[in-house]
Every structure is written in structure tokens, then in C-alpha cells.
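User: Predict the complex with iron/sulfur cluster.
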Amino acid sequence: MNGCARRVWLNQRRDPANAPPIYLCDECHFCRWNDQCHTTAEAEKNITLLNGMSRRAWESLTAAGITTVDQLLSHTVESLCQFNGIGMATARQMHTSARAIQNGDAILLAPVPDELRRPHLMLDIETSLDFGNEGQPWSFGWSDVQGNLQAMIVAKYFEGDHLLLPDGRRVQIVEHYTDAWRMLAEYAAAHDLKIYHWSGFDASVMKQTAAPDVVEVLSPRMKDLLHIFKQTVMLPVRGRSIKKVAAYLGYAYPPESDYRQAWNDYQLWMLENDDEALARAMAYQLADVEAMLIARDWLIKRNA
Ligand code: SF4
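Assistant: Here is the predicted structure with iron/sulfur cluster placed in the model:
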């Protein structure tokens, strides 16, 4: 953590009303004041909530006395470009984000691509956090052509091709992640499906870890749903991680779950055959897929 002046102030139990201004950043996720700062920022309609707001832009705007969404909206997009760290694209993004927050509702920017209405597959993967094996997939969650959630994990020494978790979930087992990519490629090709994923991460990992002939099949099919989301809608919240978007749309992830916990649970299953731990990991994995399905449905409905 770097030294957030506000955090130091609050930790010293000084008067919150006079605390240094809020700049929300990655550091906030690990800060005990996170909820309080978010609540305050939302109540103030603070510019730190805007998508596209870099620290440099925030410092420049704050120094000029522009700290709220209403104040920012009193400036034109063009005039925002005079501030440090703000070009035309950023100014447009911040202006739209400010209008969404001011209205308390999403703003549609463009029609949803027609291909999103055709049958497709949603994919999310989890990758190893082991030193030396970073980026190697250990889990694949996807929705099949009927929209059913499917889970597959890598386990080299497992006897059999699947297991049933205590919650009844079937998990397919493959010996190596290249097998998983091949199976996905065969499924997508057999049903002529696009494969949607959130951000460029999954496609980038695929290119690095699938066999060359599989990369050839998968590459033209993989589509970044986050990119489509950014082009078609602005939500009245900061951030576009699938968790943020899902939370805005009312979807709740399993409590206390994240990619680190899922990795730890997978390790626990590998070492101690703890099926409950694997069930937790799969619940997180499939929540990502379900959240993408919900985001897609919402996009289509808003565009109807
Ligand atoms: S939540 Fe963020 S802005 Fe608030 S005190 Fe912590 S680090 Fe600073």
C-alpha cells in the first residue's frame, strides 16, 4: 500500500469531516475505510466515482475546485481537455459517466451487436498462482449452447473423467489444460459458437497455453464481452469488472470469494481431497459465468 493521506488521517482518528479528499484506487480494496469512503463519495457524487478518472486528472480537477459530478457537468467536454491528464476521449468518458451518476441510471451509447442474440458460449478461466506456473489454467467455467453452466478442472493424477461435488455439481476432469482448450474448441466448432469472455485475459491466456491448431480454431471465435459492454453502455458506478457490473445488476457472488480463495480451495482439494473446498472454488468460477450471462441478458433487454 502506498500512503493514502486520507487513510493516515482516519487511522489517527481525526475528524472525518476535515479528512483529505477521496481518490478511489486499487489500494482501497485492501483498506478498512473502503466502505466508508465509497459511501461518502456516493453521497457527495464525488468525481472520484467517474470512469476514466486517473489520479493526474483527479488532482488537476480537484486543484481547480471541481470535486463533484455536478461541478464537472457544468463544463463542456471540450473545456475539460484543458486539465492535466484529460484528452478528448477521457473527457467524453468522464462526462458520460457523470451524467449516468447524476441520473442514477445507465446510459446507452450504441446498439448491442446482433451476434450477441445468437447462440454462444460464455467462458471464464482461473489460472495458477504458483510461482513459475503463473498463467496456466486450472479451471474452466462456461455456459453451453443451452445456457447450462459447465465446470472443468485440470487434475493430472485423478482417476476418471469427472466427479460429483457435495452440492451435486458435475465437474469434468482433464489431465492437462491443453485438453480443456481442445474440448472447448471442438464444442464451439461443432455448434458454430462465438465464445464470450470478460476482458482480454482469457483470450491472451488461450493464445499462450492452447496448442497451435486449437488457437487457430478458437481465436476467431473469442469475443471480449467487456469491450462490447464499454461500447454500448455506461453504468452509474465506477469500474467495469464483472463483479462490479454484476453487483450493479443485483447479482450476488458467493460471500468472501475471489480468485485467490478459489486457487487455495483447489489446492486444498488436490492435497486433501476436500470436495467441499472444490465446491467453493467451482461456485466462484461459475459465478463469473453466470454474471456474464446476466450482463448479456440485461444488455439485450435494455436495447430492446
Ligand atoms: S479507502 Fe481508499 S481513499 Fe479511503 S482511506 Fe482507504 S485508501 Fe484512502
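The chain has two domains: 5-108, 114-302.
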